[in-house]
Amino acid sequence: MNGAESLVRTLVQGGVDVCFANPGTSEMHFVAALDRVEGMRCVLGLFEGVVTGAADGYFRMKGTPACTLLHLGPGLANGLANLHNARKANSGIVNIVGQHAVYHIGYNAPLTSDIEGLARPMSAWVRTSPDSKSVARDGAAAIAAAKGSPPQIATLILPADTAWNEADGIAAVPETSQRAGYSPQAVDTAAKILRGGGGETLLLLTGGALTEPGLALAAGIAGKTGCKVMGQTYNPRMARGRGRFSIERIPYVIEQALPVLKDFRTIILVEANDPVAFFAYPDKPSLLKPEDCEVHRMTASGEDSVAALEALAGAVGARPQDAKPQKPMEIAWPAGPLNHASIAQAIAMAIPENAIIVDESITTGRGFFPPTASAAPHDWLQNMGGSIGFSTPVATGAAIACPDRKVICMVGDGSAMYTLQSLWTQAREGLDVTTIVFSNRIYRILHGEFEGVGAGEPGRRAMDMLSLDRPALDWVALARGMGVPGRAVTTADDFNEALARAIAEKGPRQIEVQM
Amino acid sequence: MNGAESLVRTLVQGGVDVCFANPGTSEMHFVAALDRVEGMRCVLGLFEGVVTGAADGYFRMKGTPACTLLHLGPGLANGLANLHNARKANSGIVNIVGQHAVYHIGYNAPLTSDIEGLARPMSAWVRTSPDSKSVARDGAAAIAAAKGSPPQIATLILPADTAWNEADGIAAVPETSQRAGYSPQAVDTAAKILRGGGGETLLLLTGGALTEPGLALAAGIAGKTGCKVMGQTYNPRMARGRGRFSIERIPYVIEQALPVLKDFRTIILVEANDPVAFFAYPDKPSLLKPEDCEVHRMTASGEDSVAALEALAGAVGARPQDAKPQKPMEIAWPAGPLNHASIAQAIAMAIPENAIIVDESITTGRGFFPPTASAAPHDWLQNMGGSIGFSTPVATGAAIACPDRKVICMVGDGSAMYTLQSLWTQAREGLDVTTIVFSNRIYRILHGEFEGVGAGEPGRRAMDMLSLDRPALDWVALARGMGVPGRAVTTADDFNEALARAIAEKGPRQIEVQM
Fold it and tell me: Domain Thiamine pyrophosphate enzyme N-terminal TPP-binding spans what residues (chains A, B) (predicted)?
């Protein structure tokens, strides 16, 4: 077997059996190996941002890494923005990038570039395989790195001759470090803090703490100690909906975030980051907590936050029945005109049991949390890196990971344009994704940010850089162009009906909400 | 004035008066300055690959740099593939990337990444401006770097506080190195080679040598000395059409390139690179020249190749009338079915006087050169870096640079999908671009490359990674979605008619050639 086949067999044996790919000449032996190796599902994307974003979505739902297949430096470059988002979400990905044959690199052919240099800013692990005998072992090491605690982006660069020359066989994935744990001392300190003054303490959660059991434990701790529980502004995945502990998130808008945090004396971080402003603004702080607020980290990313919360509940004597009852917001199918509130109601009504929500509705969606807490139980995925064009690829990968769950992707028109090629992959693979495009014909968030950074009101030329209305994008035509049935709606009744139908049917659908 | 305004004023005064932009929060003060500063044309792209590719096309036609405006590391990352192509074309670009405020960078906000690390592989010059008093001077230095000999990618990173704090005023662009020249010794050596055996010598041209005067001089030298004149496989820009010296290029396919070069004893490089294979293939050489072939560089990129060719013509006694007459291929509107030959004839007939052709018709277009040598005079632009998704952005920038010239963009469907957002910018700006999409529903080139690298015939799973036919892309719908009128054709008659009409009308049009 050649190096490419040894790598594909090593991946499959190591549990990496989905490959999101946009290959070129230097990757053809990897592609050829697919015909000879059973067990690798290869999914084509027509742009590399789709490929890397799909690998992120796959990991978030499956908990184990997929691999990618990208074409040299520029192919990697096109995938970097969504690797950035994946890295900030602590998603594990085996990122495979083709390279010229080792002896060809020095000739400065057109596609030659510094691939390792491009990979490093978005990868925790980078290696160029030196020869065909090493490829399997390097692939196994990449899998181990991607599955680490915390999971990470492992970029394996594969020169073409290492793929076509003879290999020695497959390689086993080395044992990774012991199972994720937590620090009992950090839990003890958290317990002391809570016993000393729960009401002035914020338990700030993300990561594994936002699973259903993690949230239930936090609810008990809050009920017992009086502490407040919140989530980060953005979180990789959060269990939500009826019967689950519903928590608020730190608001994105800094003028709203500061008052929310102003009375806390201590913040206990459960995987979460010390809260910072998304951007800097003139004369406003970068850190959102009050100056005299202490911060205690109970768990870091890669640690077992559910076990730590269980220990904390034990230490403070919190039981499940200590959780305070929550009064869910009432929801109903809306009528009349479409606005942020009626859209939120319709979505809350439409979410089916066990749905996966991928949320990139940056401005339209700011009010979606309260009503959707009353929806059927679901998982909610958000953009951790702030690079827009995240949601449609992530929805694609989530649907590959969970073929029996409905995926609902909510995205603004500005964001959706970056990686609209996702729809084609959804059509080809028959993925059960309903994409809702909020078509307000403006980078709405920037209109707010313009004022936020003290630039006043945009004039005509500045406004041209924020608006998408000339010409208007026709999302139904764009979806049709890629084989996805689409529909535009302008009223709540039409939106209700379009949503209900898209949810009831199987396969990719798109709804353009014209605002 | 604040730092952003000092930068915009410095750019305009330095002759950089077009900005291709996809801004975000950290760039809002730059956008706001547009309202206060006259003379900067700002063109919005809905994806950064459009922005950077447009700056490449602008430079190729205008000869002076435009600037870009990109949003932090991920925005830069999305533009890197077309910066790679621009770098390989020696295009000058002032690449401006926003960054968090200096004091905010250390807090690891979602969008934080190593921007300088991302920029370096595709930039010759990288600088992060430290404060608002330095921004104008750093901008002037970036302009000087972009206008260097050779021109280059200069990436200026602009922390948000350097944009909003007070500046000292504008800065003048420092004197660049003296005007481009050439080495008289290198010309003498070339003359000696030609006098010693013109028939065994190849004059290999690119860059400035492929202008109309450069080609005319080469034609005289060839007529006088018997040397052969060829162009690189790909060239940034070539003057072509009736009345101009028509030259062949080194074939892309290695099996065709090797016999073309096998009898040369010497290759004289006029800006060109020593010819190397685009990719490595098992048991085939990387260098395309014969082993005993000598290579002499007469000019490098950034030197004045027309002056050098003039000196060479003088040294060998070549006059314009020494040029051998060329017999142009006859062209006529084709009839019957569409195939590579009839498509080439139709395009050759349709090209209007002074058109700009942007060519990314990777497989369909391999035979376009002979008939289009008989077309009306035009410029022909190609992809220098091999990263597909190059042509529709480059056509966009070329049309901004040359509003009075028709731009014809020829692109395969696979390539067009990477940066299809270009069409929206063409619609918004009313650009006179006719895009011809060759819709063969396959990465056709990879089908050939699969065999070329010795992987045999693709099986079902491998073929899935090469084909775009499930579902078929509807290019007319995609164009309509972005505000560009489109039409699909399947016969030569329809193609003739669609082409003639698109050329006759002003504004963006798209023709989908279904093959």
Answer: 1-107
Rounded to 5°, angle at Cα B389 from B387 and B392: 135
Number of H helices, E strands in chain A: 20, 18
Give the tens place of pLDDT for each residue, A387-406.
Answer: 999 999 999 999 999 999 99
Average predicted confidence (pLDDT) for chain A: 96
Note whether B464 contacts A44, CB cutoff 8 Å: yes
pLDDT at B114: 98
Task: Name the CATH superfamily for A340-514.
Answer: Thiamin diphosphate (ThDP)-binding fold, Pyr/PP domains (3.40.50.970)
Give B161-192 as a 3 state SS string. Answer: HHHHCECCCCCCCCCCCCCCCCCHHHHHHHHH
pLDDT attached to residue A285: 96
Structural domain spans, chain A: 3-164, 184-322, 340-514
Rounded to the nearest 5°, which phi and psi values hold at B505?
-85, 165
Q: How far apart are CA A74 and CA B468, in angstroms?
A: 21
Residue A110: closest C-alpha in chain B: B385
Give strand pairing partners of B488: B512
CB proximity A224 to B under 8 Å: no
Instruction: Kindly tell me if the per-residue pLDDT of A114 is higher than 70.
Output: yes
Has residue A2 got a pLDDT over 80? Answer: yes
CB pairs under 8 A between A and B: 312
Q: Give the whole-angstrom CA distance, residue B138 versus residue B133.
A: 10
- Least confident window among A98-107, A140-149, A175-184, B216-225: A175-184
Contact predicate B421/B482, CB 8 Å:
yes
Q: Answer yes or no: CATH 3.40.50.1220 is held by domain B184-322.
A: yes
DSSP 8-class letter at B5: H
pLDDT for residue A178: 61
- A292-338: pLDDT as tens digits: 999 999 999 999 999 999 999 999 999 999 999 999 899 999 999 99
Look at residue A177 in the predicted model and tell me its pLDDT: 60
CATH hierarchy code of domain B3-164:
3.40.50.970
More confident of the two residues A365 and A215: A215
Query: How many C-alpha atoms does A250 have within 13 Å on its Cβ side?
Result: 29
Best A27, A35, A273 member to test B by mutation, with max B CBs in 10 Å, is A35
Compute the 3-state secondary structure of chain B and give helix, strand, coil in percent, each to the nearest 5.
45, 20, 40
Q: Which helix (H) or strand (E) holds B80?
A: helix B72-88
**pLDDT tops 90 at residue A141:** yes
* The three-state (H, E, C) secondary structure of A207-220, written as one string: HHHHCHHHHHHHHH
Query: Cβ distance A47 to A421 under 8 Å?
Result: yes
Chain A residue with the nearest C-alpha to that of B24:
A446
Surface of A (76-115) touching B: CB under 8 A: 77-78, 80-81, 84-85, 88, 100-101, 103-104, 107-111, 113-114
Residue B456, chain A, CB below 8 Å: the answer is yes
Q: Does any CB of chain B come closer than 8 Å to the CB of residue A430?
A: no
Q: Which residue of A has its CA nearest to B480?
A: A477
Distance in angstroms (rounded) separating the CA atoms of residues B218 and B212: 10
Residue A84 confidence (pLDDT) above 70? yes
pLDDT recorded at residue A136:
98
Mean pLDDT of B404-417: 97
Contacts of A511 (CB under 8 A, 6+ apart): A434, A435, A436, A437, A486, A487, A488, A489, A495, A498, A499, A502
Whether residues A109 and B278 touch (CB distance < 8 A) is answered with yes
**Which of A8, A17, A37, A84 is the best mutation test for B, with the most CBs of B within 10 A?**
A84
For residue range A475-489, what is the model confidence (pLDDT) as tens digits?
Answer: 999 999 999 999 999
Q: What is the pTM of this model?
A: 0.98
